[in-house]
Amino acid sequence: MLSLITETSANLPSDVRTAIQKAIGAEAEGSRAGLSMSTIALNIDMAVDRVAPVCQDTGMPTFFIHSPRGADQLFMQQEIMEAVVEATRTGKLRPNAVDSISGKNSGNNLGCHVPVIHFEPWDKDDIEVRLILKGGGCENKNIQYSLPAEIPGLGRAARDIDGVRKCLLHAVWQAQGQGCSPGFIGVGVGGDRTSGYELAKKQLFRRVDDTNPDADLQGLEEDILSSANTFGIGPMGFGGKTTLLGCKIGKAHRVPASFFVSVAYNCWAYRRLGILVDPETGAINSWQFRDNDEIKQMAEGEGIPLTGREVVLEAPLSDEVVRSLKVGDVVMVKGAMHTGRDAFHHYIMHHDLPEGVSVEGGVLYHCGPVVLKNSDGSYRVTAAGPTTSIREEPYQADVIEKLGLRAIIGKGGMGPKTLAGLQEHGAVYLNAIGGAAQYYAACIKKVTGVDFLEEMGVPEAMWHFDVEAFPAIVTMDANGNSLHREIEADSAHAMESRG
Questions:
Q1: DSSP letters along 379-435, please?
Q2: Is 96 within 8 Å of 113 (Cβ atoms)?
Q3: What are the Fe-S hydro-lyase tartrate dehydratase alpha-type catalytic domain coordinates in residue numbering (predicted)?
Q4: Which one, 56, 119, 182, 223, has least CB within 10 Å?
Q5: Per-residue pLDDT tens for 350-371?
């Protein structure tokens, strides 16, 4: 189980690599989309070389197990839990299990109903274990429809295959760059609200290049994939030719009163693998989603392509420097950087920073890193990509004003309240490449301190970094411009034209 977790976290499946490689070739070199895909390719290679998480958000470990007659499921559950604890200790998993009421992080990825383990019997002798690590950013873009319904931009969706089609077009559109596009969707048509989502997630265990045995669903899969890639959302929501890399649809019988369409959205960091285990010895007999001819090396060079026109930003930033930046500028951040995400934003609305800590003119990074403690008491960052920023929309403008921040780094963009705050207080939003956890970890040269570690846990703590050559793109500037607003509007028109 430890081998399965480690490999799933660090090494993307063969079919996913092939799909990403095609997307890299589709985007123009030097474009925002091209820069994103180059970073993604390099990050994939770095994760394998370091045996470290492709993305810092390793999600909620979810296992689907087929077991033969007489197998000891309690024993298997205990072995999985022990493997999860060890994988967390060594940084293959980020400690993500948080008590829903107290907010306390367990620190070892164990908790109420965590990890998630689904057991199903089968008539074979081997034990099949499949694991998916689906980060919170893309999990938050899951969506469920109850038909008939009015679908924004597409009109009425009836209880038929065209109604399902409208749901899926909208499901891809609403994810924008917040789910780390280009992505994949698994779809469950029918069932009840609970089983529909489970069926959707199970579709993510199909190969990207397989053929649906149901001709109608196969045609719909192809239609959605083709249509979604005309939206112009592109990698990270920066605009581009590739928005969706795969669409897999399953169906289940339903009761007459209900017609649910459940969509599980998965980011490009599509981490799912499977193994067949010998029930007598516990040995791995074979791996699933691993091809002999898979693409081993994703990146063509040793770094992302730069033009020499990048703007170097080093805190403290002045109002003049910030207001000179415009949407589309590529920046390289150096020097002091501080992390702050959900728990931090809620806390700082009601409290001050610890004594002696100041971020005036500084850079705040929406990031929940994987951090390990060294034997001498210092810390090292092993994965540090951006988290989805829109969750901080209720707080961000106020936090910028209170702390005197000049730059916010995250992914997926933010809304009108933050945009107004950026303009009023002279700050910018910088979009980092979602999922590029290894690439950004390499930009962090030192952990200079940490606050709120005991209270908030590793992902939510306020980490203080010294960084170098940390690349991001200005997507919301201090002059009221937002690339995210433009892409959302343009892609809405494109979606409506496909409806």
A1: EEEEE-PPPBGGGGTTTHHHHHHHHT--EEEEBS---HHHHHHHHHHT-EEEE--TT
A2: no
A3: 3-273
A4: 119
A5: 999 999 999 999 999 999 999 9
pLDDT of residue 208: 98
pLDDT digits (tens, 9 = 90+) for 81-130: 999 999 999 999 999 999 999 999 999 999 999 999 999 999 999 999 99
Task: Identify whether 353 is part of a domain.
Answer: yes
- Among residues 341, 331, 292, the alpha carbon closest in space to that of 433 is found at 331
Phi, psi (degrees; rounded to nearest 5) at 441: -60, -35
Percent of the chain with pLDDT over 70: 100
What range defines the domain where residue 465 resides? 311-486
Q: Contact, 180 vs 140, CB < 8 A? A: no
Q: How far apart are CA 184 and CA 265, in angstroms?
A: 6
Kindly give the parts of the chain with pLDDT less than 70: none
Q: Are 425 and 400 in contact (CB under 8 A)?
A: yes
Same domain, 319 and 371: yes
Alpha-carbon distance of 382 to 234, in angstroms, equals 28
295 to 22, 44, 152, 273, 303: CA distances (angstroms): 11, 11, 39, 16, 18
